[in-house]
Structure prediction request, 122 residues.
Amino acid sequence: MIKKFFILLVLFPLALAGCSLQSKPAETVDTLAGKTILYYGSSCPHCKIVEQYMDDNKVAEKMTIEQKEVYGNQANAKEMAAVASRCGLSTNKIGVPFLWVENKCLVGDVDINNYFKTKLKL
Prediction:
C-alpha cells in the first residue's frame, strides 16, 4: 500500500507537468514581418498619385512591394483593417492609399511618397 502511494505521489506531479507542457500554445508566426504592402483603391485619385510616383521613380525595382486592391476585394479590405489595428488606427481613421512598411502604417499619398523619397534617397 505504501509502495502504491509513493508511486502515485511521484508520478502524479510528473503527469501534470507533462500535460502542462503539451498544452502550451504554439508560437504564432507574424505573416507581415518584413513585408511592404500597399493597399489601394482602383478609382482612388490619391492612389493614382502614389502609383505615378512609384512608376516615375522605379520604386518597385528598388524594393519589393505587394499591392492589394481593397474597393473590389473584401478580403483585402478586411486585411487592411486588421493591419491598421496593429498601428492603433481605428477603421474610420484609415483610407487608401495605405502602406504597411517596417511594422508601421502610413496613410495618404504625401506620407507614402515622402517615405519612398527618404528610404530610397530619391
The two ends are 82 Å apart (CA to CA). DSSP finds five helices and four strands in the chain. The helical segments are 2-22, 45-56, 59-62, 74-86, 109-119. Residues 2-22 form the longest helix (21 residues).
